[in-house]
Amino acid sequence: MAKKLSHDQKRKAKLKKRAERGRRHEVMAYAGAKYQGDEYVPIVFATENGVLESHVLLERSLTDDDVEEAIESLVVQLRGNLAPYPSKEEAYDLPGEPRDLIIANIRRNWLNLLDEDGRGPGRDDLIGVLRTILGSVELRRDPGRESRGYLNYLERFLAKMGVSVRVEKDESGLPPGPVEDAKALESKPETD
pTM score, two decimals? Predict the structure, then answer.
């Protein structure tokens, strides 16, 4: 006959299992269909486009773990004290750490969802979409720490939708530094 575990023993076993997996998740992925409806498409698009922009800016060096870490961190921030949206000009001052770059690009893209009064999607909707994307990351992840299964899927999916992200090169033929000039994502080649 199997011995029943106490609540504390179950909790310790769960923590041990998480430690064995090599990471601890504070945010659980959402597997439901609620945030896949038409009304959430603009939020999903803005969020995933921010992820892809970050991946391109960092010369496609991000991993699925980087994306997962950034999204989990953003959910935690949304649940707590998230700084207000930056102005549109300040939104292009992007940090250099992958997690912070992904968060900044997602939030910059969310600026496009604000109405004339500066109101955008609700916090719960943003969290729901982020948790749904976490589910997509888990689903498309390849085995190993350097997985880019989700990122490769995302780039192909957005390309089918007609979305292409590239870094424009400056006069010297070199791309700008990945965080020094995020406006390069939107710039067009100059014609003489």
Answer: 0.72
